Amino acid sequence: MSSVATDNLPKWVNFGLIPFLNLATAFIVSGLVIWSLGEDPFLAMSLLLEGAFGYGEAVSYTFYYATHFIFTGLAVSIAFRAGLFNIGGEGQAIMGGVGILLAVTIGADLPSFVLIPLAILGGAVFGGAWAAIPAYLQAKRGSHIVITTIMFNFIAASILSYLLVGPLKREGAQSPESADIPDAAKLDPLSDFFGGLGFPEGPANSSLLIALVCVFLYWLFINRTHYGFGIRIVGLNPSAARFAGISSTKVIMISMILAGAMAGLMGLNEVLGVQHRLITNFTAGFGFVGIAVAFMGRNHPVGIVLAALLFGAIYQGGAELAFEMPSVTRDLVIMIQGLVILLAGALEHIYRSPLEKIFEKFNKPSKGEG
Question: Are 83 and 234 contacting, i.e. CB atoms less than 8 angstroms apart?
Fold first, then answer.
């Protein structure tokens, strides 16, 4: 591997060129697959873009999906800054949804300006508490965070199933779902929130604004606080952090609790914004997509927002593509999403390493220098 550190690459390469090359490669490979099926890949791309941004409701759905991915991308990024690979976004989001429902149920008679902050607190506390258990097991018992967070996804899904067929099931309902939340807890659609600006009608709601506030708070915490500095040092060089007196146990606990809180807030988009009740599988794999969002966004707040918007467009545009071009099945659309995830995460270094060598060569002093 090159001796040039990743941080020595220019920012426009690290945050712009490499993600672009990864994305372009994913779409080229996808285009070849579509072409092998006898379809026009350029038409397929235009249909995907049209389905994501071509009309008002499509734009709203794209932002709706992007809201999910901002929360789950932050959940992965905060942990990764501390050197932890949080794959438990699904389970943390599930428990956050349970916390949100319980909060609005307990405070059903409260006004909106109290009930919605209470729901935010409920989602953050339940998601953070669920992430704290694997964090403790890693910090104190040496259990690997990847294994425990994966296992806790299944445990959370089982708990949700039990609650929706038992204590939280809607009376008289045939399917596993909770009762509707109080009207005061429902989040306004963005079409109402920005009514005068002509925002299109659809599922996008004010949880997007909460997600953007969380992005800003993430940047502020990581870059402007003592604890954020400790997280960055532990993630970059655990040995140096230990010599500096930074407690790795405290860093693991803080970063994972915050990560779980971000994932837990994903339930705001579903429970308060769209479904207005708790249903099974409301996370729909969005916690895993957050891994690709964080990596493609280079764990940078702005990058996470842009990557979330990209995946929102792929989800929404892909559904339209599968409808308009029947030979491109939904499974093929999932393959395109998988290629983007693969190239944004696991195969990121196919371009990074060659670019590091190129910049190392150009940055070498000439023979006449020194």
Answer: yes
Taking 70 as the pLDDT cut, the residues of the chain under it are 1-8, 195-196, 344-348, 364-370
β-partners of residue 279 are: 177
Q: Return d(Cα 25, Cα 5) in angstroms, integer.
A: 24
Distance CA 298, CA 6 (A): 11
The amino acid sitting at 200 is P
Taking the C-alpha atoms of residue 370 and residue 363, their distance in angstroms, rounded to an integer, is 13
d(CA 174, CA 181): 18
- Give the pTM: 0.89
Q: Which tokens hold the place of 155? A: 């445990």
Residue type (1 letter), 60: S
Tens-digit pLDDT profile for residues 166-200: 999 998 888 899 999 999 999 999 988 776 677 88
Residue 142 tokens, joined: 């040496």
- Residue 170 CA to residue 175 CA, distance in Å, equals 9
State the Cα–Cα distance between residues 162 and 170, nearest whole angstrom.
13
- 92's enclosing H/E stretch is helix 89-106
Gyration radius of the chain over CA positions: 22
**172 dihedral zone (left: phi>0; alpha: psi -120 to 50; beta):** left
**Residue 326 burial by Cβ neighbours in a 10 Å radius (0-12, 13-18, 19+):** exposed
Name 206's Cβ contacts closer than 8 Å, sequence gap at least 6. Answer: 187, 188, 189, 190, 193, 273
The answer to whether 134 and 88 are in contact (CB under 8 A) is: yes
- Label residues 190-221 b or e (16+ Cβ within 10 Å = b): bbebeeeeebbebbbbbbbebbeebbeebeeb
Q: Are 59 and 69 in contact (CB under 8 A)?
A: no
Nearest to 222 by CA among 124, 307, 300, 308: 300
Rounded Cα–Cα distance for residues 137 and 122 (Å): 23
**Count of CB atoms situated within 10 Å of the CB of 287:** 28
Enumerate the β-bridge partners of residue 177. 279
174 CB contacts (<8 Å, ≥6 apart)?
A: none
What contacts 151, CB < 8 A, 6 or more positions away?
Answer: none
Q: Which amino acid, 81? A: R
